[in-house]
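Cont'd.
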Amino acid sequence: MLAADRLIALALMGLSLYFMWYAKALPIGWVAASGPGGGAFPFWLSAIMLAASSLILLRSFISHPHEGEKFFPDADAIPQIAGVVALLVATIAVIPFIGTYLALIAFLFIYLKFFGHHGWMLIGILTLATPVVVFFFFEVTLKILLPKGWTEPFFIPLYAMFF
Amino acid sequence: MTNIFTRRGAIALMASVAIAAGSPALAEDWKPMKPVEMVIMAGQGGGADRLARLFQTIIQKEKLAQMPFLPVNKGGGSGAEALRYLKDKQGDAHVIMATLNSYYTTPIQTEIGVDIEEFTPLARMAVDVFALWVNVDSGIETIEQYAEAVKAAGGSWRMGGTGTGQEDSLVTALLEREFGISHTYVPMAGGGEVATALVGGHVDATVNNPSEAMSFWQAGRVRPIALLTAERLDSMPGVPTFAELGHDLEYYMQRSFVAPGGLTEAQQAYYVNLLQKLHESEEWQTYARDQALLTDFLTGDELQAYFLSEREKHRDILKGLDTPS
Amino acid sequence: MEVLALLADGFATSLTPLNIMIVILGVTAGLFIGAMPGLGSVNGVALVLPLTFIVPPTSAIILLAAIYYGAMYGGAVSSILLGIPGASTAVATTFDGRPMALQGKAGLALIAAAVASFVGGTISVILFTIFAAPLAELALKFGPAEEFALVLLAFTTFVGLGGDDTLKTIVMICLGLVLSTVGLDMISGQPRLIFGDIPGFYSGISFLVLAIGVYGVGEVLYTIETSRISPAVSTARLRMRDLIDGIRQMNRMWKTMSFGSVLGFFVGMLPAAGATPASLMSYGLARTFSKKPETFGKGNIEGVAAPETANNAASTGSLLPMLTLGIPGSPTTALLLGGMVMWGLMPGPMLFIEQQDFVWGLISSLYTANLAAVLINIALIPLFVWALRMPFSVLCAMVLVLCILGGYAPSQKLHDVWLIALFGVAGYMLRKADYPLAPLVLALVLGPLMEKSFRQALISAQGDVTFFISRPLSATFLALAAIFFALPLIKMLHRRIAKRPAPAE
């Protein structure tokens, strides 16, 4: 926990410095007769954030407020969490190419099979029913088009049918 | 070179379609196969948004198209987000964009790598006008009194308007240049907020579109001083124009539709034809009359020429803004 | 009384069989749309707006009111069941609603939310009926200075000092405020913090993206870790007895609920403020004045009732400036406004005089829609609770699917979905390191309002800071904010002194 606490404080300090540097593109001071400039809010708030996270870092050397707690999950949870994150990232990454529907089917299949260890029956129902429900709820009812990628041509007859 | 020629051809064809209003034979050549995205260069609730949604409704109600037109707001960065999006959609005939004046000003003010000349002009549906408004409690009735009062305030006269760099701030700059006065410009989130701030006394004047301040005027809370148009409006007969008072001030907000570059002639023709029908619909004409919008329809070569000349005009105004007066 | 006669006319039109059917359909559709994280009343209203030009005008208003209320009720559903606030107005509902669901009391929380919403809706519609016209004048008095003071007050009633790790709370508030400045600076017209010119950041970071990220994805990751220790299946169930028990418990909260309703109505009425600050203030005040403030955030039913009464009351209140002044307080009212203009109605001061049929038809449909919404909502609670009993891994997969879709839907940018994944992972880690996430999310919601009104006020006052205290309303709010800010600190000092009667040697 202590190491993690320090690392996160350091990361936040870095982030504040980056924001401060970036905010300086606009005036950060008090503009005469009109109050703070466009960069003032992000700059000074980042400065406070920098100060507070530095204090957190400092504090971790003086006292140990979180002793006994642990930051890193049990060894067997790490691959699971990393796996879910990787799966999520991969799903988002392929949406522009294979479209939302295929991406969702793949996501559900992999998740339910390898993380949930469910039976084929349940996997089959969920992976097939979800895209259908999503299509009718989002596209047909709410008229929110989801990305289709390469699968676009297959939807043209569906559009003709439902719109 | 060939590129330019096809573009010319397309524009010429489009113009001829517009003249032979609603000639169905040409429009049948292409029609959308999926819902059309109607990108709006502004956030929800603004004038541009309201208009786009009105068009969506009329299209649906009058069954002008088989596929629905779906409004999508991309108002980020004064329309920069929408312009970039349209550029990325090069050649996609299922996207059109509802524009306002940030169509010219945003690419001039910020480096976003968009040249509006590359887009396909479809049609200008309406031109919105501007007027100078004051609170009735101020007792100001003429433009001379106004200039007087602003001068007396010594720069602390509060002018409310939309975000800095947007239309209202440009109109304010034009006023300042013409009358040699200076305002404290208070940027706000939208025309409705601006109009209310005037009634509530949080600002001293506005350059609202008549549609935004009309109801307060009818209720006797605000007063239009003069219009920034060439001629008086039918809906506001008693209000003079700056031009007739001897001040050469004119400014308009255009409401048009454009499409990404690289559309085929048939695709362009389809939309121009559709917008022509929309223009002729009774709902649209009634709405425009109520809201004091001018519905000068413009397409083809003329529209592109209009866009480009407006862009130059705005470049001049913006240049004037940068140099300290 | 003239008002009553007008209202009776309104009811006569809104209670025909066709219109009752429309109410039921609208409320049900609204409930499901509102219950989807990422979708809210905006989507519901946008969905039915084009339809309203086809049905008769009175039915059109009723349909809109029904879907508006339905979505407001629905917002609480995803806050409680999944811990993901579907709209910024429902953030405060997650604070106690989610812990209740985790304790197996999801049904009770949902009942509390429904009943509280009903109370809030009803009280505010009554206030609306009686005071609509004079209150519009009050709303006009609200300038940038008052707006700033109010937002600050909302912030302090909620955050205050003490409680969690103060340093970490400060970091999270600042981070949220800084993230809220991303995008275009409206005042200067210049882009800020767009991270190397990524177009996706031009429109800023939306509240929904952050909330779905930290509460949706972050929560899933957190539960994956902890669920291996505790049983995987939630024990949520609902019996008839729970329903009665729930209503009995609600009975003890009249003070909180009526206070929340009145507060919600007034704050919602103010053009720029709206339902989010209202729900936060209501929650914050309920906690401050509670006999057991430490139980808040750990599944106190009052912590669900307080924000829910206020946000529903505020959504009714926000109709007032829209109708009487023509200023929309939220994207939803903006759409409604557009709809009215298309029907040929001109919102503004003249509406109440010239279009009485419309105005009273609308008000009576608000009553009808509110009643229908609470009944349908309670009827659907078993279904919602049942959804929680899905095997844990199925639920997680579904939540992630909802996060992807709900993140994409509002602005239709894949960029936002990427941000959700990023915020999810970051939120998970911050949470593990004991950084409180609620202040982060709230700061992002209130930040833009706060900065904008602060700078507007200063510009119009020529940079004179005393402007804020020279105006009576804003001065009052600022004084209250100062009191609330210091209150936990005073309490803490008080306790410390009480603990140590004799000074330590």
